[in-house]
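Anyone up for a design puzzle?
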């Protein structure tokens, strides 16, 4: 439910955007995108122990010194989201008006149909969005008091290929009945790493939900080195990369159009490439209870708990 004072679904929307960027390597109605063309790795894992540290200071108290993220290549594919005005909303484009009309929604669909970079369009109704909100807040029923599907935003979700995404987002954002629109570029990590280990960020979007980073800030250097030691004890790590604080803003600018500032919520991340990809549950078991870990997940979200 979105209100001008801020509400569960607005919080969920912000969290969903960040989650989409951080957790989903290939997302959208068309399924996983093809991985970007391969590039030579900057260094073998042996060099990761001896080579220069990333640009953030890294005291050598762990056996491993991780590499900074590689430069690319970046995929020219992504996911487009177009949200519509609801009965109540926080977006300026929806001031002094009600929900988007069926005619306005049809016109946006026509705009999408005429855009050469757009494919696999799917409509998400207010009722479906309400079900998602209810599922996301199933452990916080008090936040759903007074919630109404009429206050949720319907949307179009589509895959996009190469093109002028900024111009596309501008056209869609100006359409009557649209509250906001954005594109999230597919991640470039598939093929470069198998597992990501997200660390506690400066600010926690799940505040109040009892998560592993509740009531604390960034992972400390001692915690990072302890995490690296656990990674080093796993069978077959080939490379370890570290996305430091200094990498967050430029990585974010590559991922979303138009740019938004979620820097406080973006966690630092270890990315690990294995010689023989393990079962994800084995990696999670090895890092269970490690201080400073937000979550452990696959770089390619389609792998789930299968062997990566």
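Challenge accepted. My sequence:
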């Amino acid at each position: 439910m979105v209100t001008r004072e801020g509400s569960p679904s607005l919080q969920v929307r912000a969290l969903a955007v960040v989650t989409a960027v951080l957790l989903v390597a290939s997302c959208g109605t068309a399924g996983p995108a093809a991985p970007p063309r391969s590039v030579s790795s900057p260094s073998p894992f042996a060099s990761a122990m001896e080579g220069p540290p990333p640009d953030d200071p890294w005291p050598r108290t762990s056996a491993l010194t991780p590499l900074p993220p590689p430069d690319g290549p970046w995929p020219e594919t992504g996911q487009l989201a177009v949200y519509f005005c609801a009965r109540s909303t926080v977006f300026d484009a929806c001031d002094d008006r009600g929900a988007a009309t069926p005619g306005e929604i049809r016109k946006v669909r026509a705009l999408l149909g005429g855009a050469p970079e757009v494919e696999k369009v799917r409509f998400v109704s207010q009722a479906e969005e309400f079900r998602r909100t209810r599922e996301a807040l199933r452990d916080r029923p008090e936040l759903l008091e007074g919630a109404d599907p009429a206050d949720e935003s319907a949307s179009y979700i589509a895959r996009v290929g190469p093109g002028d995404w900024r111009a596309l987002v501008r056209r869609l954002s100006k359409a009557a009945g649209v509250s906001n629109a954005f594109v999230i570029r597919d991640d470039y990590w598939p093929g470069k790493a198998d597992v990501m280990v997200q660390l506690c960020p400066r600010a926690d979007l799940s505040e109040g939900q009892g998560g592993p980073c509740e009531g604390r800030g960034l992972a400390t250097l001692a915690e990072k080195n302890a995490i690296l030691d656990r990674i080093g004890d796993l069978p077959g790590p080939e490379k370890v990369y570290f996305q430091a604080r200094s990498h967050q803003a430029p990585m974010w600018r590559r991922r979303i159009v138009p740019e938004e500032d979620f820097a406080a919520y973006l966690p630092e991340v270890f990315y690990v490439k294995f010689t023989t990809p393990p079962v994800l549950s084995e990696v999670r078991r090895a890092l269970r209870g490690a201080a400073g870990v937000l979550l452990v997940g696959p770089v390619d979200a389609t792998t789930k708990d299968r062997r990566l």
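A detail worth pointing out: The two ends are 37 Å apart (CA to CA).
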